[in-house]
UniProtKB/TrEMBL annotation:
This is PCDBD protein. PANTHER family: CADHERIN-87A, PROTOCADHERIN BETA-1. GO terms for biological process: homophilic cell adhesion via plasma membrane adhesion molecules. Its main location: membrane. The chain crosses the membrane at residues 674-697. GO terms for cellular component: plasma membrane. It comes from Falcunculus frontatus. One of its GO terms (molecular function) is calcium ion binding. Keywords: Calcium, Cell adhesion, Cell membrane, Glycoprotein, Membrane, Repeat, Signal, Transmembrane, Transmembrane helix.
Amino acid sequence: ILLLCLSGMRAELARYSVPEEAERGSFVVNIAKDLGLTGEELLARQARLVPEGEKQYFQLNQHTGDLVVREQMDREELCGQSEPCLVRFEVLLESPLQSFRAEVRLTDINDHAPVFLNKEIVLKIPESTMPETRFLLESAHDPDVGNNSLQHYSISSNEYFHVYTQRRNDGRRYAELVLDRALDREQKAEVDFSITAVDGGTPPRSGTALIRVVVLDINDNIPVFTRSLYKVSVTENNSQDTIVVVVSASDLDSGTNGEIVYSIVQNSVENFETFKINPETGQIRLKKPLDYEEKKTYEIDVQATDGGGLSTHCKVEVQVKDVNDNAPEVIVTSLTSTLSEAAPPNTVVALFNVRDRDSGDNGRTTCELTGEQPFRITLLAADAYALVTSETLDREQVEEYNVTVRARDEGSPSLSVSKTLFVRLLDVNDNAPTFTQAIYTMMVSENEPAGRSLGCLSATDPDAGENARVRYALVPPPTGTPAAASFVSVDAESGTVRSLRPLDYEKVPAFGVAVRAADGGSPPLSAQAVLRIVVRDENDNAPVLLHPHPDSSAAGELMPRWAPSGYLVAKVVAVDADAGQNAWLSYELAKATEPGLFRVGLHSGEVRTARAVTERDAARQRLIVLVRDRGQPPRSTTATLAVALVDDFSDAFHQLGHDPASGEQPQVAEEETLTTYLIASLVCVSSLFLLSVLVLTANTLCKARVRAELSPPSPSCYTDGDFATEGMGGTGTLSPAYRYEMCLTSGSGRSEFRFLRPVLP
């Protein structure tokens, strides 16, 4: 992509010449030398010719720099009588952009001979015409110019006439026939001779016509025009048959000698094709509309002839007035149809010329752009413009532009033309991909087989082509952090997230990993998002018992026989490593020695009596508690409890250690030994506690006795009967064989400390 900048542009004018009708391939000039470049530089900078018109007449050899003729050119066809005849073009060089203007002048060659429109010219001259009288002759036409055009006239030898070659204001030559001696109709009624028109070429070319002079009988008055020169202006937009001017002549003779007939002396092809005259009224009308751009001035020779053959001449000058009948033309010489969106301001997009064939204000033009677009027009030279960018471009906002250049002239009314240039922007990787979400959360069931699709990442890139192709990847975690990439993978093209191995909710309930979306630009741009994987728990763990310990065959519990309904015997404690309802546990009594004696809390796991214990209930009760979770399918485990019914806690060892009906003595031996140790420990601790209480009581009594010596005693005594019903009931969990005495010091009725001591029988 070539970025063209105005700073590297310049416009120069080079002039060359070549003869018309030059053969194809004819050498004109070596442009490389004029530009100071070599053939290799011309080729590298892609030198090319841009014609001013639609046709290309020259060709540039990029290897040698030679400018040669591409097509034969006829100067008369291209320029007519205009001089100089110029063929203009531009030489464009790129990297950087340079524009060289050049013009080649077509030099005329003598390829046309003068031609008379009428091969026979008839003149009627009265015999009374005086010598030295001049007669205007029809001019010959030679389309060549300069020295190759018609230069002079000559006539064949005769005894009555000679010819003078005169020159008009526009440079063209015409002939006047001069009478040398008086004519005598009676001696010679007709004089014939030839006239030759010769151009100045080398070798000269000529054309010949026959002049036949008819000698008329005497007519002593010739017609007289009211003016010898008529000047008139006609606008070019007049239609056919429009009256240009009316010439008028009078004759003093009477009769037929006084009757005047008007005619145009055909001195050029243009006059013959453009004007006509009414022979009776002298009205000159248009045969066709005039065109100021083709010819600006006409000279018409009008002849008035009376009935006797006498004639006179006048000249009519017609000035063609320009009207604004040509709209401007926009000629694009260079166009960059594809432009990078990264092109800086003032980048050249197109070069073009504006041409208007009118003149004056009608030919003065201005250029403008229609609509709001990031372009502007810069004037390079007369009628040469450049379309450049005015600001930075963004393909993601506008991908292509239809830039309309409007050229308007200053005529009244003004004419305009529009030219639309198509410019497409090429993408540059200036946009990073964008994730549709900042955080993606995906679910996966634990123990799901590897390779399952968990979801899909999605990122968009407003660029185009390879710059918009998004590829996905996991971002490597920092050193020392768990490698989440070992759990999941991301498809680079589609963004599909798949598991690499089964996951365990109890080990990894959830984890996060950074993902990157990078485009295919150079250099690539990227964006990051967070991928969070949440593991959905499955019921893959059975409940685990904490109490009773699962390794023991049965847990021993003591329960007094006087236990009422609802008495708390034991509590089964279990946990489940799963989550949610998979970890919700329920308890139920699966099996019992006396099924109606016990019940189990559904959610608490507490084992309580369903009724009061009776004498008929066995001293040893064995319970199996089923612990079940709420997963699908549910998982469960069982707990075994051994409950001993005792009259009081002193019989616990005896009841637990001797059971003649028990057939499971070997299995529970270890549990009974442990129970014995526990009871022994309890007795020791209780003894130490009671001893401490006795010491403390003795100390208190000693202090009380000392205070009694200082003040009257006021003891408060509480008998056993005072606490019999208030503090210690007969329905407690301890054996009635135990009794307690409570002693309080004086004034301790509100004390929060109570000292108990057992009263042993």
